[in-house]
From TrEMBL:
It comes from the Bacteria. It comes from Rhodococcus xishaensis. InterPro entries: AAA+_ATPase, ABC_transporter-like_ATP-bd, ABC_transporter-like_CS, P-loop_NTPase. CDD domains: ABC_DR_subfamily_A (cd03230). Pfam families: ABC_tran. Keywords: ATP-binding, Nucleotide-binding. SMART domains: AAA. One of its GO terms (molecular function) is ATP hydrolysis activity. This is ABC transporter ATP-binding protein. PROSITE patterns: ABC_TRANSPORTER_1 (PS00211), ABC_TRANSPORTER_2 (PS50893). Residues 19-242 form the ABC transporter domain.
Amino acid sequence: MTGTPGNFTTDPTAATPAVEVAGLHVVRGDVHALRDISLSIPLGTVTGLLGPSGCGKTTLMRCMVGTQIVESGSVTVLGRPAGSAALRRRIGYVTQAPSVYLDLTIRDNVRYFASLYGRGNDVAAETIEAVGLSSHTHHRARDLSGGQLSRVSLACALVGKPELLVLDEPTVGLDPVLRDELWEHFSTLAAAGVTLIVSSHVMDEADRCESLLLLREGHLLAHVPPDELRTRTGESNLEKAFLALVRDEQVGVEQ
């Protein structure tokens, strides 16, 4: 482990990381959205991006997929600068707001995105089944619930079989059973070599991740596995562990 108390990171792996961020600083309006963020995410892992609303989770994700203007620093994804044209077919991104065509059916939405990635209708059908929407395939997106729309967006990202999948709070509005099924699917994808970065403000999802990026007010407080966070803070409950980390950071600033 490297870093100082309250700002520690896991040691980088020998292999080329899926995502590498160095000295990243982002200003949005008059707000410093991200402050000197540096991190490295290994290939084929599930990383949780956690923190309260407004802490910078979505901004960091936008930097990774190349849609955010940065003030300074660098973001490298799959060995290339974030936003490179060569990455477009290698990254799947699911935003908080559903990114689907409301006048199309589920099947037509997923088939459309499959065609963009050069995938066939058979892959589209498999992907729809993977997100649990096979019984709704002919329903138009405008008639779906919020949770169903989120799953269609996920299917549209998955159908391209991305190497990196960036998911911005994908389980919001989903029932516990479906949340569990989706996380099982995320684990299966990671086992197949896909790298997943999943943001959430729900701390009970943290144990589903191999490592956690904990953000607060644009600062990266820690990048550690869940059990490491428990050990460092002496708290068995992850939400309490996060709060303990925040308190330690505040003490360090005051000193």
